[in-house]
Amino acid sequence: MAWRDGARLGAYGAAVCSALYGAMKLAQALGADALADKDPLPPELRERLLARDPLFVTSHWVLAGAAVAGIIVALATVRPWGAVVPRRLLLAMTWTVGIFMIARAVGVVGFGFVGDTLLLTGVRPAPAGQAALAGELARWDLLLWSPFFLLWGACWMAAGRARSAHREGALHRSGQSGKSGKS
Questions:
Q1: pLDDT given for residue 127 in this prediction
Q2: Sign of CA pseudo-dihedral 118, 120, 121, 124
């Protein structure tokens, strides 16, 4: 697969992952459980989430809206109408989101492969009285959420390369060199 095809695949992958995540958050905002009970939150936040605390319902609406924006940004890296967005802005957005999602998957923010493994091996203690639930949520995070965020983040990183690949392909087809000095 050519570099340009990988970047294009990443852009569409980021759009699909955004759509899946957005659909889940929209379902939660509308009252469905939609994996809400598998969210690896601290016990007090988890209780508020499952009780449909207004703050969490609002956050679901915000995240569903952010997912729609994510779809648009991902597609802007490969679709002709995306050329109106400055290349550097798209690169900044795609790389920032990609790095954040990969960091979340690895465990820099407390969850992820590292945090879950530490909890499941007993190196990091579970919250008092919550060992069984913490173990279950760590397994869900290790097998579902962390791989999903890693894939999504990798797609965002590839999508960042898509705009460059799209521009280079357009320049090559028009017979211009890539040294126009414009970005």
A1: 83
A2: positive
DSSP 127: P
Place of tokens 């579970």: 126
pLDDT for 40-61, tens place per residue?
A: 888 888 899 999 999 999 999 9
d(CA 183, CA 171) in angstroms, rounded, equals 12
User: What is the C-alpha separation between 38 and 146, in angstroms, rounded?
Assistant: 12
Q: How far apart are CA 43 and CA 136, in angstroms?
A: 13
Q: DSSP class of residue 108?
A: T
Full-model pTM: 0.84
CA dist 28 and 159 (Å) reads: 28
Cα–Cα separations (whole angstroms), residue 107 to 58, 66, 81, 118: 26, 22, 36, 10
